Input
Amino acid sequence: MKHLPETLVCQAQKRMRGFAVEGFVPGQGPDHPKIMLVGEAPGETEIKTGVPFSGRAGRELMGFLQKIGLTREKVFITSAVRSRPYRWREKKRRDGTVIKRKDNRPPTQKEMLAHAALLDYEIKQIDPDVIVPLGNIGLNRLIGPGMKITNVHGRLSLSPIRYLVDFSTATFGWTEKAYAIFPMFHPASIFYNRRLLERIDEDLQKLHTFITEGGA
Output
């Protein structure tokens, strides 16, 4: 895809002033791919590399894609927020000294609002066959607050998605176009619950069937 318009990037960065975030990582991938993956936000590794999903969770994601014959180059990878949200944490060393370091945290609704126009632009320009929100953040950004990935993962739906209408009033509308939406667990979820691997494998096979036999 062509680079994001500089005006949109500057606008988003201006709207993020005052928030505990750092860096900026745009979405990456080809035009009109079969799949667009929507995560939540970059982490420490992504900010250093400038590549979405290039950290520990990204390695798991690449493994998942490989199982259904896909590579990073064949999908578009993006996120609801493009800057890394962080919180300061104190860590005590063995010698008793205390240091502060930045830990990743989930983005807030206001942070998603600040970057909403970027995802709207990418979706419209890329026009993927199927959008795969990874986890609750991506799901809520596209389908609305209150949706839980545990209730809808692995279920294909044809639905309009949310887009930003007015930043000043935090107003979202619904696209006229209906998109194929296939929610999945975020790859980082297996770090906390390895039992999710079985569900993720099942969802991957469903996704594979859809993109190979379902017309996507």
